[in-house]
Amino acid sequence: MAESLPPTRSRFPGSGLAKGLAVTLRTMTRKTVTEQYPDVQPDLPPRTRGVIGLFEENCTVCMLCARECPDWCIYIDSHKETVPAAAPGGRERSRNVLDRFAIDFSLCMYCGICIEVCPFDALFWSPEFEYAETDIRDLTHERDKLREWMWTVPAPPALDPAAEEPKEIAAARKTAEKLAAAQAEPTEPQTEPRPGQPTGPTAPEAGAS
To answer: Following DSSP, what letter does each residue of 4-31 receive, concatenated?
Structure first.
């Protein structure tokens, strides 16, 4: 059985204290890197994943974000309303109306799946991070709060000049160019024939081969 070694001791008494003081003196002359938060706000990257903002006008209550969420932290309630026919003789339509959209940020792991799968661009990343609460139940934020965070969502980065133009923009530009070209074409005025002027094809002149 191996014998336990005695604890190692410094050769000179007080050498540990001297080393600590040496580190303190060495770092006293360096520039501090500590940010005095909250007096000084941190400089966050432009696409920081803070919280999720809701653009309510784009939400169609398709429930895709809630179904794909791995933590089941999105709660959505809705009801159906009947929309009258747009034209006489048409059919009435039904549409979903959003009643509640809430996210429990005590469960959210900020994976961003809900933002990626949203087909109508109703969810966006906001760099806002100051939403701490003293009670965990207060971390479930309703749609009013999620809508306020939309004002803190940064603008999307500019496209690469060498990137291909999106298909939607290209199609819209072609349609606009066609309409502009159709409106710019001068229309030839149609003159009515004078009295006695033949309206049919003229006979070939004599001597013409």
So the answer is: PPPPP--SSTTHHHHHHHHHHHHHHTSP
CB neighbours (10 Å) of residue 105?
19
Q: How far is CA 95 from the centre of its chain?
A: 24
3-state class (DSSP) for residue 60: coil
pTM value surpassing 0.90: no
CA-only gyration radius of the chain, Å: 36
Per the DSSP assignment, residues forming a β-bridge with 81 are 95
Q: What is the pLDDT of residues 151-208, one digit of tens each?
A: 989 888 777 888 888 888 888 889 999 888 888 876 666 666 666 655 555 555 555 5
Strand 123-126 versus strand 140-141 pairing type: unpaired
Residue 136: both structure tokens together = 């965990």
Q: Which two tokens stand for residue 77?
A: 């309630």
Burial status of residue 96 (CB atoms within 10 A of its CB: 0-12, 13-18, 19 or more): middle
* Beta carbons within 8 Å of 165's beta carbon, 6+ residues apart: none
Half-sphere exposure of 31 (CA within 13 A, CB side): 2
What are the tokens at 153? 């969502």
**Secondary structure, 3-state, 187-209:** CCCCCCCCCCCCCCCCCCCCCCC
